[in-house]
Specification:
Layout: H1 6-13, H2 23-38, H3 52-59, H4 67-72, H5 76-90, H6 98-112, H7 118-124, H8 131-144, H9 153-175, H10 202-211, H11 215-226, H12 231-249, H13 254-269, H14 273-285
Helix pairs in contact: 1-8, 2-5, 5-8, 9-11, 9-13, 9-14, 10-14, 12-13, 13-14
Length: 294
């Protein structure tokens, strides 16, 4: 089964663009602005270079998109850069008549991709939305999706699906909590977790960076729970913040706070710690856990 991922997105987009529209040109067109915007670096600390080797591995689906690129999608400035790039650099070079062809083909792929939820499918194929918004949302999904295919790829998809189902179970349990609401103002601007975790705590940084790829899965499910109303999210976020402050005032380290919050979720929901760590990572990114280090 073909799924929406970075490689399939590029394969559909590339023939619809004016020449030169080689794989390398199109990948650079889509990815380089993200690298430049967030100053993304490789494992050696050098600026990430889009060489032919890495592009080839992405397009042959023998490698996933680099984690720092996916993590950058949690930043508003990066999302704005992606949208501006489609508006100013991609749409102007569509071949005449090929814009509709692109959306027809990408919609067909989305409709046949069983890994995409009904809510997301409706969102991505909604013709009432501006095309810039639709292609931006679709591209972000494609970047976050599993790009690498393996002989046991069905197991990878099954595992990811199971994790997402468990995440929803955790959020449902939190939403059903009947305790009185907490009267507390929330900080609504997400802050990169790297600004909130001590820079020498590499183990915790790596753990949160790995789990933060589920940020949009969790955010989208909150939207499903609320139907456009922020009440459910706000209630849960306030309780997370209160629990964090209690642990912080007790003098616990960042590692211990992370573990305590994970254990609290696991006990409340019955889900695995692996799943609960993804929810904790969401609230670290969303400003309810840890404060920005100044």
């Amino acid at each position: 089964m073909e799924t929406l991922c970075f490689a399939t997105f590029v394969d559909i987009l590339r023939p619809c663009l004016q020449e030169p529209n080689t794989q390398e040109n199109v990948v650079e067109l889509l990815i380089q602005p993200i690298i430049d915007c967030d100053n993304i670096r490789n494992n050696n600390g050098d600026s990430l270079v889009l060489g032919s080797s890495i592009i080839s591995k992405w397009m042959t689906r023998t490698r996933n998109i680099n984690r720092p690129i996916i993590s950058a999608l949690n930043k508003e400035k990066v999302l704005n850069t992606i949208k501006d790039n489609f508006k100013n650099s991609v749409f102007p070079i569509f071949e005449v008549g090929k814009e509709d062809e692109f959306f027809d083909k990408i919609n067909s792929l989305i409709n046949h991709d069983s890994t995409i939820t009904t809510t997301k499918r409706d969102k991505y194929t909604n013709t009432a939305k501006p095309k810039i918004d639709r292609i931006t949302d679709i591209f972000i999904h494609a970047l976050q999706a599993e790009n690498k295919t393996e002989d046991r790829g069905w197991l990878t998809n099954l595992y990811r699906g199971t994790i997402e189902d468990e995440v929803k179970t955790v959020l449902n349990k939190l939403a059903q909590d009947k305790r009185a609401d907490i009267k507390k103002e929330l900080k609504y601007t997400p802050t990169s977790f790297k600004k909130k975790i001590e820079e020498d705590n590499h183990e915790l940084i790596d753990k949160v960076e790995y789990n933060i790829i589920y940020y949009y899965v969790i955010r989208d499910y909150f939207a499903e729970l609320e139907g456009g109303n922020d009440a459910t999210f706000e209630k849960i976020a306030k309780r997370f913040r209160k629990h964090y402050e209690k642990l912080y005032k007790a003098g616990l380290s960042q590692d211990n706070i992370h573990d305590e919050l994970t254990d609290m979720l696991a006990t409340k929901s019955g889900a695995t710690r692996t799943t609960c760590e993804k929810v904790v990572a969401f609230f670290i990114q969303d400003c309810e856990v840890y404060d920005e280090i100044t």
